[in-house]
Specification:
Number of strands: 0
Largest sheet: none
Helix content: over 70%
Structural class: mainly alpha
Shape: elongated
Distance between the termini: 50 Å
């Protein structure tokens, strides 16, 4: 009995160590695939604004470029779904040396990703309005205008999106202090996320924002694929 009892902790430790390899590879894949999906969305996306006075442009993009609009916003939706585990993977790397940054970064950014889904819901609603050519365009245009101007929707989603940005900044500071990425590269992540939302009507800047996310998160993912253990080969921890 004693031999069996002694063997159980060894087996559990071996299983945990073995699965840490799966975690490292799995999170690395999300860190690479998520930003690439996001970049693809920015390339395909037909330009339009989302400001209160940009309703005609928003609805017009869905009406005149229905297929591109649908593909791009579906990719944005999938990018959000894959970037969340990628962010979890980033906090996993930060946690051993900076647990506070890992905890608050994950909590805030995970809450913030809810707004990503809300924005996608609005996009899919606009796609439906634009794809059905039998609907009255004036009525649909008025509805989209009202939806964009509705502060009851804009305020809570904007606040929650701000939590995403704050959470990502906290994670970036943790990545820098842990020596995983220099601060400039790390901050390309929140800069890129904010840039994509801000430059929907300026395709070159929108694509550049997608490249920022690839350069930040994707680089960590590539390093993780080559790393022998759960840590990234780093440049040395930054001074506190």
């Amino acid at each position: 009995m004693a031999t069996v009892a002694a063997a159980q902790p060894e087996e559990a430790g071996s299983s945990a160590e073995s699965y840490s390899h799966v975690e490292r590879i799995g999170f690395a894949v999300f860190m690479i695939v998520g930003p690439l999906i996001l970049l693809g969305a920015t390339i395909i996306h037909p330009k339009h604004g989302i400001r209160v006075n940009a309703g005609s442009e928003y609805y017009g993009a869905a009406y005149n470029h229905t297929t591109r609009f649908y593909i791009a916003h579906t990719l944005f939706f999938l990018a959000g779904a894959t970037l969340l585990p990628a962010v979890i993977g980033l906090t996993r790397l930060v946690r051993p040396t900076h647990p506070k940054a890992a905890f608050w970064g994950l909590v805030l950014s995970a809450m913030g990703f809810v707004s990503w889904g809300a924005f996608d819901g609005m996009d899919f609603m606009t796609y439906v309005a634009g794809s059905d050519k039998s609907l009255n365009t004036s009525t649909m245009q008025d509805y989209i205008d009202e939806a964009l101007a509705n502060q009851g929707v804009a305020i809570p989603t904007g606040i929650v999106f701000t939590l995403l940005v704050i959470g990502l900044i906290v994670i970036c500071l943790g990545l820098h202090r842990a020596g995983i990425l220099n601060l400039g590269l790390a901050l390309l992540l929140p800069i890129g996320i904010v840039g994509i939302l801000s430059f929907l009507e300026y395709p070159p800047l929108e694509i550049a924002s997608g490249l920022c996310v690839c350069a930040s998160v994707g680089l960590v993912g590539l390093r993780q694929l080559r790393a022998p253990d759960v840590t990234v080969p780093a440049q040395g921890a930054a001074p506190m």
